[in-house]
Amino acid sequence: MPISTKGNYRNKRNKFSGHRYESYDYPKYWNILFFNSDDNETNLLTDSKVRIQEFVCNIKNSGPILKNSILYEISDSDYNEDNKLNYDDPIHLFISKIDGNGLSRLSPLNERLKSYNIVPDTDKIIFRTVRDTNNDKLFDSEDEEVWYQIDLADENSIKEVIIEAERKKIEQLYFDQWLVKHN
Known about the structure:
With 183 residues, the protein is mainly β. 10% of the residues lie in helices and 36% in strands. The protein has one domain (2-178).
């Protein structure tokens, strides 16, 4: 059961503190409560402060590991060091067992997850991130996109799918073919 902040609080007073705050600083979900109906036991996904953007369970057309797992898009680090965990901080791809145990990060720390796809009928995930290559603590068009593949059936299998030279070629094709040139 996802645990969310209550409603859209933009420019409203917090009923607990009286201070104003913005919903931008609050997550869609900040934890998930798991309930085992066989033994009436509950457990939280994590004791750490996190922002859970999305999660996917009951993953069809996948391998045996993913079928018994949950994938999450989670922000868990104050990358820009502004003492807030908000949308300016990177989102990472995480996984846990179906009961919420064993939460672990799949995507590299300090890169922002852009998208991911499961390779059908396997335990492989291909995902794309933005790497803060200019170290300005922002994830923007000045930074590089990186594609990875991870095979959950093979520990430590994360690898970059497209090497830097190929990424530069793709970027150049995009500029040459799609950006308007003004003379």
